[in-house]
């Protein structure tokens, strides 16, 4: 178990990388740090590795502080986003480096290098220098060097971010399978919602040095704590409608900017301002305009995604994305009705999620 | 507005030929995306259209008139760059007004034009700011607004949104699409991201190795790819490729699975040959034997992406992915049957390059 | 459709190359040629290209003037100076590159010491070494006038700032993550320097060593002022051929040829590293 306790990290005088951040990494879990560039993901990895020290706060392993433990004594393995390959060594020597440093016997080093190269699909480049590899191959060597030796914790900094789409998709599956097999504790950073959801046992969403929410992929997808998480998890992202409350026939209701009723308002929304309704593209169905209990909207933009279509519907005063089958016949400008699955509504006040009334 | 035609267009850099004599015809007001991996010749093609790069051989015509020797600034072409190219010391308003001022328009006309385009791009509240204070999404919108304000005949966009995060990308896509719907420019959009190309364009021009592989509507490029390269480059998750052998009128063998064929597929086998590549999109591959073409496999891993699952299954030597509704799972090593409808089984001549990972070329 | 280069353009190209080459190589060629000329064939007009070669000049330089003694002095002084410059320069440059010591100010100060022309500091140096040479420490370190230590200190002083500046950029080019990665693999700071950083910076260090050595080898002013006989270097040695009886051109040419040779060989050996050093860079995305 690794913990960051109230960690504050500043670079120089002005740049704040992390603000009072606390986080537990459980043994054997695949933990994904997901957030935009510059959110502080790499800083957390560096703190766990001992490559940098917190400005204040503590880093602990199994309850004991390891802040002053130098990196070479932490038994952590790391794959760096910029690969960090030794250009003066061949791929095989790069892969062997951590083993040699640990004093592993020559025959075993050779065997392990061969087997890891096979797993990563790079056995044919073992004799080359990193300078003669493609970006994708370099990234795989970097990943291989991180996982080649047993470590207490594996820190992987966007290890598949620079691969092409095909390879990234395949490597994602292989990485997950490998993690399950190794039962290793892994901290993995990414800027891709798909990678976060596919890989993480738990995911921490990082924004401007703060953890917005930590939870299982299902937690984040179904119960986002705030609008940042809601809009950052899932592809296409959640759409938001600015709403207010109003008295309806059977209790208070939520209405759009142009007065259309969306749903009954939960008690927690009453008297609040800055209300937003968030809805995922898959929780919406398009129906004929004018049907009861639907929102009136107009098709603004249609996007073809091959297997499906995304329609951007102007409803109320906001654009809403709706996923449709690829053969859906719609034209820009067409009037439509929008039916929202009431069980999949998310209500936010001042960007923070409100509790829903028990059904 | 302009119709753009290319005639046997060639671009050479010294001994290296980047574009190999391509032909295309882009209709007036059409939105075309040029899609391809890095080094495919897409940027050279766009720069030749813009006049930033000389044409080595062949012709570029605007409305039937050759423009090979017309200078970039005389072509009435606007271009938006990935790095926005905004002028830092002046406000957003002045940045947008800049092309009009240099064209010597009068103040009231400029003011009207700037406000119209700013409103369209949701920049009205930002007009007084300097570019340094903008987020990357906002800066990109200012860049687009500045390109738009002079009412160009052709609007070229070079990877304008590839570095934005998912939310901003969706937003910018909507902007770009609505600009096109509203102003009706001929638009050419260069990208390596197949999703952007499909989402935005009326037609997609898929390029590779300096040649056009296919130029067709997004629907067609996705469902009826002209060759294995297009099939592999378009679609997310990427298409599954499997080797097939012993193809004849009685069927074909995919990784040990003997499969019967429809008349259409038999005809296809006759042109492609007894050995080749079978390609199936992850969205069309199903768990269970509901469809007539069936493959036996063993589960590798299931990824739960909340709104859908992606399941990886080993079929013989190949590992295939399929997209299923949430809830469907396959355990590691579990024996499963996968099936696909005949119309979703694509057959291509064996092409070593697409089987290999493109980044190893 | 390959364009064919015309014979004319080709001729012009090679003509230019030979012209430029001639301009740079001719003086060396002339020096070597002169070193083999008998005395009567040297200062004649028109110059003579055909003569009976003789080793008389070499005999004079090596035997009568004991030129190998100067070579030995130069070798000691240059190599020791260069070694000191490379070792301290690398360590200093590394800390500037990695820890930004002094926030750039110290680095700039170090360069500013280079701004002083040699002639401006020569007199203070002379006085300092004269007095230091009389102290116990000065004696034990051979720091007095006409002793090796004095010149070594001077050359280190003059080359270190330049070496640091050159090396800082080489170290900055090595991604920090390379060192981080090695430390996570269990190497200590010092081991990381030895096994990762310095091997990667080797081309840069080679370039620095070559420049420093060339400077030391060819330096004249300090050597002339700070030495008399015992610690004189080749440049000073050649000067001693300018006798009251006249300049001994033949032996001068022979001595010059002898003193150029080691440098030439050294640079040829180092060329491989230097080319890599000038186009240096670690693997990046």
What does this structure look like?
- The complex is a heterotrimer of chains A (359), B (361) and C (285).
- Chain A has helices at residues 41-49, 91-101, 106-120, 135-147, 165-182, 193-199, 217-222, 227-232; strands at 2-11, 15-25, 30-34, 56-61, 64-65, 76-79, 153-157, 186-190, 202-207, 210-215, 239-248, 251-256, 261-264, 275-279, 284-287, 295-304, 308-315, 318-325, 335-340, 345-349, 352-353.
- With 359 residues, chain A is of the alpha+beta class.
- Chain A folds into two domains: 2-226, P-loop containing nucleotide triphosphate hydrolases (Rossmann fold); 239-353, OB fold (Dihydrolipoamide Acetyltransferase, E2P) (Beta Barrel).
- With 361 residues, chain B is an alpha+beta fold.
- Chain B folds into two domains: 4-229, P-loop containing nucleotide triphosphate hydrolases (Rossmann fold), CATH 3.40.50.300; 239-360, Nucleic acid-binding proteins (OB fold (Dihydrolipoamide Acetyltransferase, E2P)).
- In chain B, 27% of the residues lie in helices and 33% in strands.
- Chain B has helices at residues 42-50, 92-102, 107-120, 136-148, 166-183, 194-200, 218-223, 228-233, 263-272, 352-355; strands at 4-13, 16-26, 31-35, 57-62, 65-66, 77-80, 154-158, 186-191, 203-208, 211-216, 240-248, 251-254, 257-259, 276-280, 286-287, 293-304, 309-315, 318-324, 335-340, 346-348.
- In chain B, strands 6-7-8-3-9-10 form a six-stranded mixed β-sheet, with helices on both faces. A five-stranded antiparallel β-sheet of chain B has the order 13-12-11-14-20. In chain B, strands 15-19-16-17-18 form a five-stranded antiparallel β-sheet, with no helix packed on it.
- The longest helix of chain B has 18 residues, at 166-183.
- Chain C folds into two domains: 7-54, no CATH class; 57-278, MetI-like fold.
- Chain C is built from twelve helices and two strands.
- In chain C, strands 1-2 form a two-stranded antiparallel sheet.
- Residues 279-285 of chain C have low confidence and may be disordered.
- At the A-B interface, helix 4, helix 5, helix 6, helix 7 and strand 16 of A face helix 5, helix 6, helix 7, strand 16 and strand 18 of B.
């Amino acid at each position: 178990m690794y913990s960051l306790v109230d960690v504050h990290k500043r670079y120089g005088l002005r740049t704040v990388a992390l603000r009072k951040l606390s986080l537990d990494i459980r043994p054997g879990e695949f933990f994904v740090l997901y957030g935009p560039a510059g959110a502080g993901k790499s800083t957390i990895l560096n703190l766990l590795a001992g490559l940098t020290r917190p400005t204040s706060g503590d880093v602990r392993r199994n309850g004991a502080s390891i802040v002053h433990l130098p990196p070479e004594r932490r038994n952590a393995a790391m794959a760096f986003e910029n690969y960090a390959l030794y250009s003066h060594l061949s791929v095989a020597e790069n892969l062997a480096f951590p083993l040699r440093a640990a004093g592993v016997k020559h025959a075993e080093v050779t065997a392990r290098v061969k087997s890891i190269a096979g797993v990563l699909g790079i056995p044919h480049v073992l004799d080359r220098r990193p300078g003669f590899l493609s970006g994708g191959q370099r990234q795989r060597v970097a990943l291989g060097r991180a996982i080649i030796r047993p470590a207490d914790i594996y820190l992987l900094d966007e290890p598949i971010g620079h691969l092409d789409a095909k390879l990234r998709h395949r490597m994602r599956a292989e990485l997950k399978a490998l993690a399950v097999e190794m039962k290793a504790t892994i901290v993995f950073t990414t800027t891709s919602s798909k990678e976060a959801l596919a890989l993480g046992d738990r995911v921490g969403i990082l924004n401007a040095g703060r953890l917005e929410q930590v939870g299982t992929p299902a937690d984040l997808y179904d119960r986002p704590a705030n609008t940042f998480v809601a809009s950052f998890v899932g592809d296409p992202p959640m759409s938001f409608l600015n709403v207010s409350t109003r008295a309806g026939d059977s209790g208070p209701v939520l209405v759009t900017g142009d007065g259309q009723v969306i749903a009954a308002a939960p008690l927690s929304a009453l008297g609040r301002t800055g209300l937003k309704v968030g809805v995922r593209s898959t929780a919406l169905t398009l129906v004929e305009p004018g049907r009861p209990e639907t929102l009136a909207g107009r098709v603004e933009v249609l996007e073809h995604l091959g297997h499906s279509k995304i329609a951007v519907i102007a409803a109320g005063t906001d654009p809403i994305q709706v996923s449709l089958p690829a053969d859906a016949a719609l034209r820009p400008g067409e009037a439509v009705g929008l039916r929202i699955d009431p069980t999949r509504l998310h209500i936010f006040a001042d960007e923070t999620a409100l509790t829903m009334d028990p059904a | 507005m302009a119709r753009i035609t290319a005639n046997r267009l060639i671009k050479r850099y010294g001994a290296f030929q980047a574009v190999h004599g391509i032909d295309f015809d882009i209709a007036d007001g059409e939105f075309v995306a040029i899609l391809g991996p890095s080094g495919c010749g897409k940027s050279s093609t766009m720069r030749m259209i813009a006049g930033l790069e000389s044409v080595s051989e062949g012709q570029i015509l605007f409305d039937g008139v050759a423009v090979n020797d017309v200078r970039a600034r005389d072509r009435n072409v606007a271009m938006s760059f990935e790095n926005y190219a905004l002028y830092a010391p002046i406000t957003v308003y002045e940045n947008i007004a800049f092309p009009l001022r240099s064209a010597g328009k009068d103040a009231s006309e400029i003011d009207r034009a700037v406000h119209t385009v700013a409103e369209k791009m949701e920049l009205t509240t930002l007009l007084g700011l300097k570019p340094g204070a903008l987020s990357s999404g906002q800066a990109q919108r200012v860049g687009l607004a500045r390109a738009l304000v002079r009412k160009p005949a052709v609007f070229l966009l070079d990877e304008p949104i590839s570095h934005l995060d998912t939310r901003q990308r969706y937003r910018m896509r909507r902007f770009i699409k609505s600009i096109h719907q509203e102003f009706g420019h001929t638009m050419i959009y260069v990208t390596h991201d197949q999703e952007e190309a499909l989402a935005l364009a009326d037609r997609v021009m898929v390029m590779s190795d300096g040649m056009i592989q296919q130029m067709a509507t997004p629907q067609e490029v996705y469902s009826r790819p002209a060759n294995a390269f297009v099939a592999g480059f378009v679609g997310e998750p990427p298409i599954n490729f499997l080797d097939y052998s012993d193809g004849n009128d009685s069927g074909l063998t995919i990784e040990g699975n003997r499969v019967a064929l429809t008349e259409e597929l038999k005809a296809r086998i006759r042109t492609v040959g007894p050995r080749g590549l079978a390609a199936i999109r992850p969205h069309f591959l199903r768990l269970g034997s509901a469809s007539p073409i069936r493959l036996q496999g063993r589960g590798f891993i299931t990824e739960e992406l909340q709104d859908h699952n992606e399941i990886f299954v080993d079929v013989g030597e190949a590992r295939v992915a399929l997209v299923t509704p949430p809830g469907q799972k396959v355990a590691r090593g579990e024996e499963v049957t996968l099936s696909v409808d005949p119309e979703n089984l694509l057959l291509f001549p064996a092409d070593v390059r697409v089987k290999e990972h493109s980044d190893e070329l | 459709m390959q364009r064919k280069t015309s014979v004319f353009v080709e001729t012009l190209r090679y003509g230019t190359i030979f012209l430029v080459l001639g301009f740079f190589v001719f003086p060396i060629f002339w020096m070597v040629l002169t070193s083999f000329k008998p005395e009567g064939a040297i200062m004649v007009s028109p110059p003579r290209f055909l003569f009976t070669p003789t080793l008389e000049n070499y005999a004079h330089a090596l035997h009568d003037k004991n030129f190998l003694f100067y070579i030995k002095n130069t070798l000691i002084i240059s190599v020791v100076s260069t070694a000191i410059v490379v070792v301290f320069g690398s360590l200093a440059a590394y800390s500037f590159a990695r820890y930004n010591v002094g926030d750039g100010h110290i680095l700039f100060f170090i360069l500013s010491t280079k701004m002083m022309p040699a002639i401006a500091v020569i007199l203070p140096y002379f006085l300092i070494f004269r007095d230091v040479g009389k102290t116990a420490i000065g004696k034990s370190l051979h720091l007095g006038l006409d002793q090796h230590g004095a010149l070594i200190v001077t050359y280190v002083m003059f080359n270190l700032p330049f070496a640091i500046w050159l090396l800082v950029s080489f170290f900055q080019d090595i991604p920090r993550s390379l060192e981080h990665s090695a430390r996570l693999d269990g190497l200590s700071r010092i081991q990381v320097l030895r096994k990762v950083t310095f091997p990667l910076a080797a081309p840069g260090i080679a370039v620095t060593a070559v420049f420093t050595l060339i400077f030391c080898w060819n330096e004249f002013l300090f050597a002339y002022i700070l030495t008399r006989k015992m610690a004189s270097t080749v440049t000073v040695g050649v000067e001693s051929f300018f006798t009251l009886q006249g300049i001994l051109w033949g032996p001068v040419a022979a001595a010059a040829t002898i003193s150029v040779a080691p440098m030439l060989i050294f640079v040829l050996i180092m060329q491989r590293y230097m080319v890599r050093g000038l186009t240096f860079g670690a693997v990046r995305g």
